[in-house]
């Protein structure tokens, strides 16, 4: 918390994870990268944190056990909030009923001024308690909504709206538990650095959004996530590598048909394409992802704008 407070970062799960990885020194790469950015007392920005996490090698991410523990803690906190909201609501209802009983019976006490004063005081206090309990219930409900929103934000890429790298990891881990067949595609936009260098990062961001939209539409209902930079991952349960290859090729052709122009001048940017590697497995989705990554590099070496597939072990 002190680390996040010093850098003025929001206390949300993704930032907790980042702070944990840095403070514990779980990976030397991340620690050195953060130290380089903050050299001279520079504060981290949220954008810098997101870019560091997206660009970090796989072993810098929290181990599966740590992520599972964080998920359990979030679920437990949400459950406790729901319980507290229910308790506050019941207490408010009971207090209101008690207050009404006092008011109804106060008139029966006639002639006992002192006792009547006590009851009137009790009525005022219980009314105030009822109001505060109702306010507490509303605040608790808002906290629950904020927690749900933070959990969703932590698993979603802020630029494209797609699931991010951490969400992809969780999906692959869940599939690994089931042991069901799954195909995975690794996609990378061709010559994306050239687009950024020539037209600027604002145009590059718009290209990323269009590519994300095209992939999501063409690959539905299979989930597409942004793995980092210009890389995307597609998870396709219950299909083999040949079926996955056909689907990815359909998405690749759909992108080739898109016409990209500069918003300000309507100048054509040219064709935007991607290369892809596809692999499938009957046991370990992470092995399929590694094989898909290797196949992607083979597609790049072969000239880009193509899909390569092989079966993972």
SSE blueprint:
Elements: H1 2-6, H2 13-24, H3 28-37, H4 46-55, H5 64-106, H6 113-154, H7 165-178, E1 182-189, H8 192-199, H9 201-219, E2 224-228, E3 231-237, H10 241-256, E4 274-281, H11 285-301, E5 307-311
Parallel strand pairs: 4-5
Antiparallel strand pairs: 1-3, 1-4, 2-3
Helix pairs in contact: 5-6, 8-9, 9-10
Q: Could you explain how this protein is built, in words?
A:
- This protein folds into 3 domains: 2-62, no CATH class; 65-154; 174-311, 2-Layer Sandwich (Alpha-Beta Plaits), CATH 3.30.70.270.
- Helices cover 63% and strands 11% of the residues.
- The chain contains 11 helices and 5 strands.
- Strands 2-3-1-4-5 form a 5-stranded mixed beta sheet, with helices on both faces.
- Strand 4 (274-281), helix 11 and strand 5 (307-311) form a beta-alpha-beta unit.
- The longest helix has 43 residues, at 64-106.
- The chain is elongated, with a radius of gyration of 28 Å.
- The two termini are 43 Å apart.
């Amino acid at each position: 918390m002190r680390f996040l407070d010093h850098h003025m970062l929001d206390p949300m799960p993704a930032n907790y994870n980042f702070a944990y990885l840095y403070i514990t020194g779980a990976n030397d790469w991340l620690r050195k990268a953060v130290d380089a950015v903050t050299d001279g007392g520079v504060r981290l920005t949220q954008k810098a944190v997101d870019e560091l996490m997206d660009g970090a090698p796989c072993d810098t991410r929290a181990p599966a056990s740590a992520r599972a523990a964080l998920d359990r803690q979030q679920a437990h906190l949400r459950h406790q909030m729901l319980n507290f909201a229910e308790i506050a609501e019941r207490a408010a209802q009971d207090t209101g009923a008690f207050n009404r009983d006092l008011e109804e019976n106060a008139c029966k006490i006639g002639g006992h001024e002192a006792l009547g004063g006590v009851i009137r005081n009790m009525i005022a206090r219980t009314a105030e308690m009822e109001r505060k309990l109702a306010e507490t219930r509303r605040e608790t409900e808002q906290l629950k909504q904020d927690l749900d929103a933070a959990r969703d934000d932590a698993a979603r890429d802020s630029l494209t709206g797609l699931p991010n790298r951490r969400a992809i990891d969780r999906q692959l881990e869940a599939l690994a538990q089931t042991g069901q067949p799954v195909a995975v595609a690794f996609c990378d936009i061709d010559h994306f650095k050239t687009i950024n260098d020539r037209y600027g990062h604002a145009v590059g961001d718009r290209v990323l959004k269009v590519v994300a939209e095209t992939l999501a539409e063409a690959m539905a209902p299979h989930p597409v996530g942004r793995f980092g930079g210009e890389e995307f991952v597609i998870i396709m349960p219950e299909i083999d590598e040949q079926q996955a290859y056909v689907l990815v090729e359909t998405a690749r052709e759909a992108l080739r048909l898109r016409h990209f122009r500069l918003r300000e001048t309507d100048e054509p940017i040219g064709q935007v394409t991607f290369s892809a590697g596809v692999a499938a497995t009957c046991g370990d989705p992470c092995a399929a992802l590694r094989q898909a990554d290797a196949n992607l590099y083979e597609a790049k070496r072969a000239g880009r704008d193509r899909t390569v597939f092989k079966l993972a072990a």
